[in-house]
């Protein structure tokens, strides 16, 4: 009986680990070259690709690589990001995407020779906010927390101390594609790397409040 219990525990543990492995996720705009090893994603970013809608520049593009899974409720997601950024607008980060007109992308973007912590929020048209860094960095962690109709975006250089960079709207009760994206609008491509990708389920706040008011 003890052996059976241990075996079942091992099966459950394996299932939990494998449930979020990257090779179970799907591609939107799969790049020509990519690999997954030890749950680390490395991609050769598609040249002249991006996500942007209309505002300021007057064009719409929706063709950059994005590896994703789908989530229907509230959650926290984070990932460690690094890349061999080369030219203007090279970027890598997290993306939460409801559809082609409603998405959030946040990460590192290389602009005018400097590293920028970047966030684009799109609801029909895109906006763009940046925090310029005073020196290059080897990697960064980006974390997003989806609660009700809002998403909070955080960044960290050590995966311990997180700073909020953005609070933005995203319709609740709507499934979203969530995962890792990279884009190279102005160049011939570069290598982007993603590690420690993790999604944590958060119980629905409205349901928790209902349960508190309706205790047995």
Could you describe the largest sheet, including whether it forms a barrel?
7 strands, antiparallel
Q: List unreliable stretches of 5+ residues.
A: 1-19
SS strand fraction? over 45%
Domain count? 1
Question: C-alpha Rg, in Å?
Answer: 19 Å
Average pLDDT, rounded to a whole number, is 92
State the total count of DSSP E strands. 16
The sequence of SSEs as H and E is HEEEEEEEEEEEEEEEEH
Summarize the structure.
This protein has two helices and 16 strands.
Molecular structure report:
It is a single chain. The chain is mainly beta and 216 residues long. It has a single domain (26-203), classed as Jelly Rolls. 12% of the residues lie in helices and 53% in strands. The chain contains 2 helices and 16 strands. The strands form 3 sheets. Strands 1-6-15-8-9-10-11 form a 7-stranded antiparallel sheet, with no helix packed on it. A 7-stranded antiparallel sheet has the order 2-3-16-7-12-13-14, with no helix packed on it. Strand 8 and strand 9 form a beta hairpin. The longest helix is centred in the first third of the chain and has 18 residues, at 2-19.
Task: List key phrases describing it.
mainly beta, 2 helices, seven-stranded antiparallel beta sheet, 216 residues, globular
């Amino acid at each position: 009986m003890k052996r059976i219990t241990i075996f079942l525990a091992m099966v459950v543990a394996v299932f939990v680990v494998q449930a979020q492995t990257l090779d179970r996720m799907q591609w939107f705009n799969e790049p020509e070259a990519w690999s997954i090893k030890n749950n680390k994603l490395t991609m050769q970013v598609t040249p002249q690709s991006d996500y942007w809608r209309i505002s300021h520049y007057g064009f719409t593009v929706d063709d950059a690589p994005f590896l994703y899974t789908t989530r229907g409720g509230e959650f926290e997601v984070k990932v460690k990001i690094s890349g061999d950024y080369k030219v203007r607008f090279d970027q890598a980060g997290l993306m939460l995407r409801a559809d082609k007109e409603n998405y959030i992308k946040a990460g590192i973007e290389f602009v005018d020779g400097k590293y920028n912590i970047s966030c684009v929020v799109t609801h029909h048209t895109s906006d763009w906010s940046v925090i310029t860094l005073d020196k290059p960095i080897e990697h960064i962690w980006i974390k997003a927390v989806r609660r009700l109709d809002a998403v909070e975006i955080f960044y960290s250089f050590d995966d311990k101390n997180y700073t909020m960079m953005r609070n933005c709207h995203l319709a609740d009760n709507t499934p979203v594609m969530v995962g890792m994206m990279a884009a190279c609008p102005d160049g011939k491509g570069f290598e982007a790397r993603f590690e420690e990708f993790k999604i944590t389920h958060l119980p629905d706040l409205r349901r928790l409040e209902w349960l508190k008011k309706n205790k047995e």
